[in-house]
Write a structure and sequence with these properties.
Order of helices and strands: EEHHEHEHEHEEEHHH
Strand order of the largest sheet: 1-6-7-8
Shape: globular
CATH superfamily: Aconitase, domain 4
Helix content: 25-40%
Radius of gyration: 20 Å
Largest sheet: 4 strands, antiparallel
Strand content: 5-15%
Number of domains: 1
CATH architecture: Alpha-Beta Barrel
Structural class: alpha/beta
CATH topology: Aconitase, domain 4
CATH class: Alpha Beta
Distance between the termini: 26 Å
């Protein structure tokens, strides 16, 4: 998993509440598409018109935000189904951080397993960042400093945010839960060997 320490760039304002995982990535796109190939289909129903042409009103189709690494959103972002593909699609589209008042629980956890940082800030603060971004037409960037746990708005205001210490450290080191567990591989292997010596009957069908 790619490490996350600092990030800066335009923050695309998608200021709508209850953006669910189906809106982020349609379920049909998860069949036969690898996790690294979902980026072009992120927000497909919003990004394209019925005739297949780009929707010029959708924020990620506008010049300042096409390559935006940060997404600003309304409350309950990532609600709905538990599909991890929603996070894969966002990252495939170049988004590494979503700032919103709140998140769907499973989506929130999936973010940390894939190196995407979800930051919860009060709604009025998210709206202020969006207003500053829009006032500069995307020319002024928002910055994220995970080491210091601050968001720096386009006008330079430092906004602290809370994050679970263990999840923060895992992002800084680029480790998902499996990688965190494998740091203790030697201890795990030693315990298995000792337990197998004591209770061989419990390991008859287990291969180390």
């Amino acid at each position: 998993m790619e490490k996350f320490t600092k990030l800066a760039g335009p923050a695309a304002p998608l200021m709508r509440a209850n953006v669910d995982t189906d809106l982020i990535i349609r379920i049909q796109r998860l069949v036969g598409t690898g996790r690294t190939g979902l980026g072009p289909y992120a927000f497909e129903n919003l990004r394209f018109l019925p005739d297949g042409a780009e929707n010029p009103d959708f924020v990620l189709n506008k010049a300042p935000y096409r390559e935006a690494p940060i997404l600003l959103a309304g409350a309950n972002f990532g609600c709905g189904s538990s599909r991890e593909g929603a996070v894969w699609a966002l990252m495939g589209a170049g988004i590494r951080c979503v700032i919103a008042p709140s998140f769907g629980d499973i989506f929130h956890n999936n973010c940390f397993q894939n190196g995407l940082l979800p930051i919860a800030l009060p709604e009025e603060v998210v709206k202020q960042i969006a207003a500053e971004t829009q006032a500069s037409q995307g020319a002024r960037h928002t910055a994220i400093d995970l080491v210091r746990q601050v968001v720096i708005s386009p006008e330079g205001t430092e906004i602290p945010f809370n994050i679970d210490a263990r999840k923060r450290d895992a992002l800084l080191e680029g480790l998902d839960d499996i990688a965190l567990t494998l740091r203790f591989k030697d201890q795990i292997t030693a315990w298995q060997a000792a337990d197998r010596a004591k209770r061989s009957w419990a390991w008859d069908s287990v291969k180390l």
